[in-house]
Amino acid sequence: MAKPMEQITWQELEIGAVVTEVGSARQYHTGSWRSERPVVNKDQCIKCGVCWLFCPDISIVRAAEGHFEADLTYCKGCGICAKECPVGCITMVGEEE
Ligand code: SF4
Ligand code: SF4
Questions:
Q1: H or E segment and range at residue 69
Q2: Is the CB of 90 under 6 A from ligand 1?
Q3: Residue 21: beta bridge partners?
Q4: Cβ(36)–Cβ(92) below 8 Å
Q5: Closest Cα to atom 2, ligand 1: which residue?
Q6: For the CA of 86, the nearest ligand
Q7: 89, 91, 92, best to mutate for ligand 2 pocket (most atoms within 8 Å of CB)
Q8: What's this model's pTM, rounded to 2 decimal places?
Q9: Which atom of ligand 2 is nearest to the CA of 41?
C-alpha cells in the first residue's frame, strides 16, 4: 500500500524538471504545459529577432523564409514574445481554438 502523502519525505519524491544529465534539457518537452500559443503573422514580421531575444525558453527559431516563429515543442505560452514584438505581429491564441 502506498504511503499517505504526509508521510512521504522530499528524498522519496521523483525528480521533476531537473536537468540531471548534461545535454538532456532538450528531452523536457515544456510545450505540453501551454494553454496559449504565439502565432506570428509572417507578412507583418520585420525579421528583427526581438522575440528571439526575449523568449525565456529559447523557443523562438528562425524559419527558412527568414521570419521568426515559436518551436511549439518547447514554448510554454508565456506571451512575452507577443508583448515585446515591436510591430505587434504575434497573437496569443488559446490552445482550444
Ligand atoms: S510565448 Fe513565451 S515561451 Fe513561447 S515563444 Fe513566446 S516568449 Fe517564448
Ligand atoms: S519580434 Fe515580431 S517582428 Fe521581430 S522577428 Fe519577432 S515576430 Fe518578427
A1: strand 68-70
A2: no
A3: none
A4: yes
A5: 78
A6: 2
A7: 89
A8: 0.81
A9: 7
How big is the chain, counted in residues? 97
| Fold topology of 30-97 | Alpha-Beta Plaits (3.30.70)
Main-chain dihedrals φ then ψ at residue 6, nearest 5 degrees: -70, -10
Residue ranges, the chain, pLDDT below 70: 1, 17
Measured by CA distance, the residue closest to atom 2 of ligand 2 is 85
Contact between 47 and 67 (Cβ < 8 Å): yes
State percent of the chain over pLDDT 90.
66
pLDDT per residue as tens digits for the range 28-39: 888 988 999 999
- Ligand closest to CA 74: 1
Question: Taking a C-beta distance cutoff of 8 angstroms, is the pair 28, 37 a contact?
Answer: no
Rounded Cα gap, residues 88 and 94, in angstroms: 17
Which sequence spans correspond to the domains of the chain?
30-97
Burial of 91 (0-12, 13-18, 19+ CB in 10 A): middle
